Amino acid sequence: xxxxxxxxxxxxxxxxxxxxxxxxxxxxxxxxxxxxxxxxxxxxxxxxxxxxxxxxxxxxxxxxxxxxxxxxxxxxxxxxxxxxxxxxxxxxxxxxxxxxxxxxxxxxxxxxxxxxxxxxxxxxxxxxxxxxxxxxxxxxxxxxxxxxxxxxxxxxxxxxxxxxxxxxxxxxxxxxxxxxxxxxxxxxxxxxxxxxxxxxxxxxxxxxxxxxxxxxxxxxxxxxxxxxxxxxxxxxxxxxxxxxxxxxxxxxxxxxxxxxxxxxxxxxxxxxxxxxxxxxxxxxxxxxxxxxxxxxxxxxxxxxxxxxxxxxxxxxxxxxxxxxxxxxxxxxxxxxxxxxxxxxxxxxxxxxxxx
Length: 355
Prior knowledge:
Blueprint: E1 15-22, E2 27-28, E3 32-33, E4 36-41, E5 48-54, H1 60-72, E6 81-85, H2 90-98, E7 102-106, H3 113-123, H4 139-155, E8 167-171, E9 176-184, E10 191-196, H5 199-211, E11 223-229, H6 236-245, E12 254-260, H7 271-291, E13 304-309, E14 315-320, H8 334-346
Parallel strand pairs: 1-6, 6-7
Antiparallel strand pairs: 1-4, 2-3, 4-5, 8-9, 8-14, 9-10, 10-11, 11-12, 13-14
Helix pairs in contact: 1-2, 4-7, 5-8
């Protein structure tokens, strides 16, 4: 690997920083994964000495070996040099590989944030910019998603449901068991469905919303979302593909799908995602048709369910109320969200004794 131009500028403080971080983008090769990046920088001059990307499956020795090779190739101006790194896992391996040539310390690396922000901006694309098929989804499966979405938008479950009336989602073939489905749009905006992997995740998001005065981008949990928007608010490429394929779109309810990582990075969408969304929407439509009256109730005497299965035998079961919901069916979940934190803080540590 050729040494980058300007590397000789490394001198001032005899310190180098190394930052290891997950890249805010997915790579399809052929299975999707999020690479990790290692960035080396002179914290005094702000010079990025070098950077490299790695698969997350690579051993820690590969990361440390590359850093050690880069450090060994730098000009030596002083006897003692320091390498500051933000990763506890890498530190002991680097100390071994650098064999005392560098003092390796673990600590914050705020000097690299500007460079990392520029990298993030360069890798981030607007949602839907690549179209429905950019990540391998096929017209047939995406078409099923559109076909399932149109009647749900016409049924408008958000007219009767509130977001705290959480349904349990059990879909083992799609990787969900005991998940939470929240119907949004009761306030007349942002119509759609949000799926969280667990009740803990749902309460975590609600708690964040209660405590934050301004909107936050990263929720800290994965979110699977179906949204219905005005066509004018949807990327042109998505509209063109829907028109070309002849998929049904209700006026004011263009369906879009997103699967969002805890740090707000959009996951690639394949047939698996669109198939799950289609079965989920069909199950919700059946639930509303069979049990829609329950959304007006304050309490449910017993749980109710609806099930839908696609032609491949992949099913979704929706249950109301969610068995782990501790608040009244027609009430607010806010107290439960805040109580969840108090419960964890008050939980005794170590063994408990009986008697």
